[in-house]
Amino acid sequence: MTRIVPVLLLLLLSQSIHAATQTLHKNEQNGLYTWTSEANGFTLELIQVVPDFIRAIYSKHEFPKHEIEDIASYCVFGSVVKNTSDKLMEYRVADWRYEHKGKSYPVKTKTDWLQQWKQSGVVFSWTLLPDEGEFYEGDWQQGFTTIKLPRDSEFDLVYTWSLDGKAMQDRITNMRCAPAEIGE
Fold it and tell me: How far apart are CA 153 and CA 132, in angstroms?
């Protein structure tokens, strides 16, 4: 009987684990990486973005210099979220975390950025991944995801979503912030 209990416990725990299929792709032309994770109806793609690209985008929209440098100091990823199931899929960036050197931190959300930018007189929002999404089959969204870490830092991203109301969680390990410049 004592041997059956651990086996049953393991079986029960395995029901709540949602192992994703993850791929890492290196762009041979610029050396930047893309992480793609797909599990239980949710695909998340994260593409490294260098600071000069961020500076160019926000300069074009006449952001104050200090706001441009602030977001350029973050690890920025072009993000694509997609529902690959035939069920209702939802996500909330406020529930996502990144882990670095044994500590967990929240991902800065679109709402967080908009509140900060409003104080500088900026009214602009379309580049950032929306805080929340509710998707039906094939629906998708894109935008920047921002992580407050120094260049070339490694971290794990823990992300959550729900499928027909059932909570899911997974992790992308050993992610890296983009280098300061292409070719570094």
Answer: 26
